[in-house]
Amino acid sequence: MPVENLARSDVVTAHEDEHVEELATLMDDSDIGSVVIVDGDEPIGIVTDRDLATRVIGNGMDPSETTAGDVMSDDLTTVDHTDGFYHVTELMSEHGVRRLPVCDDGNELVGIITFDDLNELLADEHMQLSDVIQAQRPEY
């Protein structure tokens, strides 16, 4: 199944000059754990709630003076919208990330897929398998 069928298309984005205070507010208001940093429509980095805790608060930085560009992970791993589920899991494992921005053929951001999304998909698949087993099992 292509990742474009699994990914969320409502990605919360910001620019690298956005103050991390605003990013934290965006995350809280949207009930999410990351903001993809973009230049136009192209993803160039990501800031997670963990980044805010460890890189900003942990280093004693002033959130009103610190920008996304100061703390974002800029070694961004992305996935192509046509890539499959297994490739996504391989990339997450290989790069030690829980979120992958999804890009189209022009490297423009079209979605995001998270570890939690994949877990939810697997749980749904397991539930369907369980239903099949229960339907075929004789009554005791």
Automatic annotation (TrEMBL):
The keyword Metal-binding does not apply. Keywords: CBS domain. It comes from the Archaea. It holds the Pfam family CBS. Residues 7-64, 72-129 form the CBS domain. The keyword RNA-binding does not apply. Gene3D superfamilies: CBS-domain. SMART domains: CBS (SM00116). This is CBS domain-containing protein. It comes from Natrarchaeobius chitinivorans.
